[in-house]
Amino acid sequence: MTTVEGIVLKERSVGEQDKFIDILTKESGVLEISVKGAKKINGRSGSSTQLLAYSRFCIDKRGSYLYLNSAEPIHIFYGLRDSLAKISLASYFAEVMRSCIKPEAQNGDIMRLLLNCLHYLETGERDEKLLKAVFELRLMSEIGYMPDIVACRSCGAFEPEELYFCMESGGFYCSDCFENESEQNYMKIKLPVLSAVRHIVLADFSRLFNFRVSDGTQQQLSELAEQYLLIHLERGFGTLDFYKTL
Ligand SMILES: [Zn+2]
After folding, report:
1. For residue 171, is it left (φ>0), alpha (ψ between -120 and 50) or beta?
2. Residues 6+ apart with CB under 8 A from 134
3. CA of 235 relative to ligand 1 center, distance in Å
C-alpha cells in the first residue's frame, strides 16, 4: 500500500456503486484510481474523492490497476462552489491539467501551480482573469512550451514600445522589424503586456502572483495566454467554452 497526495482532476461513475478518479500527484503525474463502493462512502472520505479535492490517498496496486483503500482530505476548496464562474474556471484548470500531464512525470511545480491557482480563486485574493492567464502561461512554460520573450528576434531590442508576438514560435519582433508576410498567427501588443508575460514565465514561485496590470494590459494578456495555450495543445476545452458563456 502506498500513500500519495493529489488533486482530483476528474471523477466518473462506473456501474451503480463504483467510480474512477484521476488525480494529479507530485511524484507520479496523473494516476487513475478505482474507488469501489464510492456511492456508499460519505463524510470525510467521500468528500476527499470529489472533483478538485486535495487529499491524501492510500492506494493498493493490483496488477497494473490502482484501488483506493482510504482517503483523507487535506483541503476541499469548498469556497469554489459558491460561484458558478469560480467552479467553472477551476474545472477548466483541471481539464487542461488532465490533457497535458503525462503519467510518471515529475510535477512538483505543476502541482504547486494548480494548488496556488485554486487557493487564490477560492479566497478571491486575485483577479480571476489574471489567475487564468498566469495558469495558462506558466503551465505552458513548465511543460516545455516556454515562450522566447528575451528580445526582438531580428534586432535584439529588449523593450520595444510596441511589438508583434508570434503564437507558433513564441517569439516576438519589434514594430520596426516585423514583416507580416512571414507570420500567420501573431498578436500586436504593447510593452506592459510583454513585461507581464516575462514575469509569469520567469518569476520565482514565491513572487509569481504578486503583480498588477492595467485593464487594457489585462485584456491583451488574457487573449494572448489563452490563444497560446490552445494553439500549442492543439485542441479545445468544453470547460473553457462553458466558462466563456458566463
Ligand atoms: Zn527589432
Report:
1. beta
2. 117, 200, 208, 209, 225
3. 32
Note the pTM of the prediction, 2 decimals. 0.94
pLDDT in tens, 141-174: 999 999 999 999 999 999 999 999 999 999 999 9
Domain 87-146+188-245 has CATH 2.40.30.260: no
Question: What is the Å distance from ligand 1's center to 148 Cα?
Answer: 14
Q: How far away, in angstroms, is 185 Cα from ligand 1 center? A: 18
Render 25-66 in DSSP notation, one character per residue.
ESSSSEEEEEETTGGG--HHHHHTTSTT-EEEEEEEEETTEE
CA angle (113 as vertex; 108, 118 as ends), nearest 5: 130
CA of 179 to the centre of ligand 1 (A): 10
**Domain spans of the chain, in order of start:** 2-75, 87-146+188-245
The answer to whether the CB of 201 falls within 8 A of the CB of 141 is yes
In angstroms, what is the span from residue 193 Cα to ligand 1's centroid? Answer: 17
The CATH code of domain 2-75 reads 2.40.50.140
